[in-house]
TrEMBL record:
Location in or out of the cell: Cytoplasm
Annotated GO CC locations: cytoplasm
Annotated site location: Important for substrate specificity: S192
Chemical reaction(s) catalysed: L-homoserine + acetyl-CoA = O-acetyl-L-homoserine + CoA
Protein name: Homoserine O-acetyltransferase
Entry's Gene Ontology molecular function annotations: homoserine O-acetyltransferase activity; homoserine O-succinyltransferase activity
Species this protein is from: Dysgonomonas capnocytophagoides
Record-listed substrate binding positions: K163, S192, R249
Residues the record marks as active site: C142 (acyl-thioester intermediate), H235 (proton acceptor), E237
Keyword annotations: Acyltransferase, Amino-acid biosynthesis, Cytoplasm, Methionine biosynthesis, Transferase
PANTHER family reported in the protein's UniProt record: HOMOSERINE O-SUCCINYLTRANSFERASE
Alphabetized Pfam families for the sequence: HTS
GO biological process: one example: L-methionine biosynthetic process from homoserine via O-succinyl-L-homoserine and cystathionine
Pathway: Amino-acid biosynthesis; L-methionine biosynthesis via de novo pathway; O-acetyl-L-homoserine from L-homoserine: step 1/1
C-alpha cells in the first residue's frame, strides 16, 4: 500500500529498506483518489521509533493513507529533537477544525500517575472529546486506552504487583467481529504496563464489549460504539526489538525489572527475540482500516461530523 508521509520523515528511508512502499506528498497529489486521512497522536517518548512502528503496520493494505502527526502544546518531548517535532508534527489548534477517517493515540510513560496529575491531561481529554465527533474510528493504545475509558466511562485503572511485560497468548470472545477476520483461535501480542483495567468495571457499561483477553495479561481489546472506538491495552504495533530496547533501557538505569516473558529464545536476553505477533499485528491494523475506516467513513470527510454519537454496525458486510 502507498503510505503518504511528509517529505524527509526519517521513517521513510527505514521502511524503504524493508521494501515497504511509501509515497511522498508530491507524488500522492498526482493520484486521482481520495486517501484515508489518519491522525496519529504520538505520546511515546522515543517518537521516531513509534512513528516507524505504526507506519510499518499502516502500510500493509492496498488503501492509500495520508498521515498527519499530532503533538500536544502543553508537553515538550525530551527525547526527540525539537527540529523533528517542528518539521513533522501539528498542534491541536491546527487540526481541530478538520475531520479524519481514523485516529491512533499511542501509549505514554505516565501510567503510575493519576490521570488528573498528568500535565497534559486537559489537552489530551480535549482531543478525546473532539475525536468522538470528528473521527470515524479511533484506536487507543495502552495508556491511551485506559485514559479514554476513564474519560468516557469513569473506568478506573489498578496498579499491578509487577509489570505486565512480555508477549502473551490471547483469545477472541466474538469471532464474528470483523476486527478478527483471518485470526487464529489463539494469537500473541506484546504488553508493557504497570496498570490494568478490569472486566467487572467494563461490563457495567452497555456501550462497551470485551473482544479479546488473555489468561496472563487480562483484558486486551474493548470496543465502544460498535467500532467508533477501540481500546487496546497492549502493543501489537511493536517491532521485534522494542521490548528488548525497553528492557535494556531500564536495566541500564539500575531498575529492578524482570526479563520480558515469552520473548527471548530460552528466556535468555543474550539471544534473539522470537517473533510471535507480527502477522496478527498486521492483520489487526489491516482489518481496522478496512472494516472501520474504508468501509464506514463518508467519501466527503466533511460529512464525518454528522456521524456524531452514532455507533457503527458491529457486523460489516464482506
Amino acid at each position: 500500500m502507498p503510505v503518504t508521509l511528509p517529505d524527509n520523515l526519517p521513517a521513510i528511508e527505514i521502511l524503504k529498506k524493508e521494501n515497504i512502499f511509501v509515497m511522498s506528498q508530491l507524488r500522492a497529489k498526482e493520484q486521482d483518489i481520495r486517501p484515508l486521512k489518519v491522525l496519529i497522536l504520538n505520546l511515546m517518548p522515543i517518537k521516531i521509533a513509534a512513528e516507524t512502528d505504526l507506519v510499518r503496520l499502516l502500510s500493509n493494505t492496498p488503501l492509500q493513507i495520508e498521515i498527519d502527526f499530532l503533538r500536544l502544546s502543553t508537553h515538550q518531548s525530551k527525547n526527540t529533537p525539537i527540529e523533528h517535532m517542528d518539521a513533522f508534527y501539528k498542534e491541536f489548534d491546527e487540526v481541530k477544525s478538520s475531520n479524519y477517517d481514523g485516529l491512533i493515540v499511542t501509549g505514554a510513560p505516565v501510567e503510575m500517575m493519576e490521570y488528573e496529575e498528568v500535565s497534559y491531561w486537559n489537552e489530551v481529554s480535549s482531543v478525546f472529546d473532539w475525536a468522538k465527533h470528528h473521527v470515524t474510528s479511533t484506536f487507543y493504545i495502552c495508556w491511551a486506552a485506559q485514559a479514554a475509558l476513564y474519560r468516557f466511562y469513569g473506568i478506573p485503572k489498578y496498579p499491578m504487583h509487577e509489570k505486565m511485560f512480555g508477549v502473551f497468548k490471547h483469545t477472541i470472545n466474538d469471532r464474528s467481529f470483523p476486527l478478527f477476520r483471518g485470526f487464529d483461535d489463539e494469537f500473541y501480542a506484546p504488553h508493557s504496563r504497570h496498570t490494568e483495567v478490569r472486566r467487572e468495571d467494563i461490563e457495567k457499561h452497555k456501550d462497551l464489549k470485551i473482544l479479546s483477553e488473555s489468561d496472563e495479561a487480562g483484558i486486551y481489546i474493548v470496543v465502544g460504539r460498535g467500532g467508533r472506538e477501540f481500546y487496546v491495552t497492549g502493543h501489537s504495533e511493536y517491532s521485534l526489538y522494542t521490548l528488548h530496547n525497553e528492557y535494556s533501557r531500564d536495566k541500564d538505569k539500575g531498575m529492578d525489572i524482570d526479563i520480558p516473558k515469552h520473548y527471548y529464545r530460552q528466556d535468555d536476553p543474550g539471544q534473539k527475540p522470537i517473533s510471535r505477533w507480527t502477522g496478527h499485528g498486521n492483520l489487526l491494523f489491516n482489518n481496522w482500516m478496512n472494516y472501520y475506516l474504508y468501509q464506514e467513513t463518508p467519501y466527503d470527510v466533511d460529512q464525518i461530523e454528522k456521524l456524531g454519537n452514532i455507533s457503527l454496525p458491529s457486523e460489516t458486510a464482506l
